[in-house]
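Chapter review. Work through the record for Sushi domain-containing protein before attempting the end-of-chapter questions.
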Amino acid sequence: MYMSLSMLFFSVCSRLPNVPHSYVSENTKKVEYREGDVIHFTCETGYISGPTLRYICTNTGWENPVGCGKPQPLSDGDTKISTKRQYSHGERVEYICQNYYKMEGTPYKTCENGKWTGQMRCLKPCTVNREDMNKHNIQFRYVSDDKLYSEHNDVIEFICSRGRRVGSLEMRQTCIEGVMHLPTCQ
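Structure tokens for Sushi domain-containing protein:
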């Protein structure tokens, strides 16, 4: 017997899941279902739905994916909008970092069958102030501020307030995860 690949996809989800006292919602009802298709069940009159009545057609048949609770907090960041107590499979949450912190990774975490996926972190900025510069006898080359915040990987250029550079550190320094090595002049 010959069976085409397209027939295989249809046959995997040809039988609908048995969900007592419910029917497939009109907006997700189809004649044939393929992998990735989603169906929703609506309860019959007088019955209350459980936690989820959503099924996804997979290569092994219908699956009822599990939702997620609140997503984990992000150190030095937050979610872009208020979080809910419960999320459905496939929903995602967007994160942002605090001012001057730089995001590394994707800004989204996605609920995938009961677990949050997506990796990100907020990289610390560097702070250079007048007191630190006075200790090293330096000043900013292009600004006259007393304090400067710079994001991860930003470059700040310094000049000697008086005297000459001492040591091997260049006058251009890069902020690396909240650390900036200051050159010294004498």
